[in-house]
Amino acid sequence: xxxxxxxxxxxxxxxxxxxxxxxVNISLQMEKPLLLTGEAGTGKTQLAFEAARDLGMDMxxxxxxxxxxxxxxxxNQDTVLRLNDARFGSGDTxxxxxxxxxxxxxxxxxxxFRADKRVVLLLDEIDKTESDVQDNLLDILEDxxxxxxxxxxxxxxxxxxxxxxxxxxxxxxxxxxxxxCYCHHIAFPSKEQMxxxxxxxxxxxxxxxxxxxxxxFYDLRDRxxxxxxxxxxxxxxxxxxxxxxxxxxxxxxxxxxxxxKRASDIQAFRAGExxxxxxx
Length: 280
Known about the structure:
41% of the residues lie in helices and 14% in strands. It has eleven helices and nine strands. The chain has helices at 18-30, 44-55, 70-74, 79-88, 108-114, 131-143, 175-179, 191-201, 207-221, 231-244, 263-271; strands at 34-37, 58-63, 75-77, 104-106, 119-124, 145-148, 153-156, 162-167, 182-185. α8 packs across α9 (207-221). It starts with 17 loop residues before the first helix and ends in a 9-residue tail after the last helix.
């Protein structure tokens, strides 16, 4: 699959505005890592899944956390199993303690680089990692190679994956890291864009229901809650309204716990303490 011919224009489940489409496709074609920023629930992670589905690519996913190390994202050696085999024998498993690679557990990056076809490599919430981990990943992601230090062997990707990184901006990424990426901030959708998104998910829904639900949703977002509802919450809420047959009542919205997730926000909503008292 020639990267110069790759093109992603959104799917029946993902609305892609023209600006985002342009940078996604240039990242695909130039084989550059794509860093997507934006608040939670704006579709950063989902873009990687939908691009993989649309382009017929497999996915490798690294769910980042503060304790992760750059090396383990590439590979790990199962030293406990190797020691056990050295002491008691490996039986008929086919493993040999003399063969280092019999005890290697490949991480998402290792699997993506060793794949025999192009895959989507998602590093989700990269901002959760420590700065030294990000630094360790700089050359790995740019050069698509890493060294297995125990045997001094280099793993080089024959086919570069489409690398997507997401960040909720919990921690600033370093300038060298940013320089190696194409970057795009997914702004929160306007009402017009949100209606396009909702039509993809609910093509047969009443326009009146969606508009009423959307107005309540944006109103809630303006009320200063600690965690305002995001796009995914609105999509789930409309689905629940359709399933239960309830109307999006502006005076007392049903199932508000689908939109508001923090206990303090729900309590403030019930007490009418967050923003203008529009519903109570």
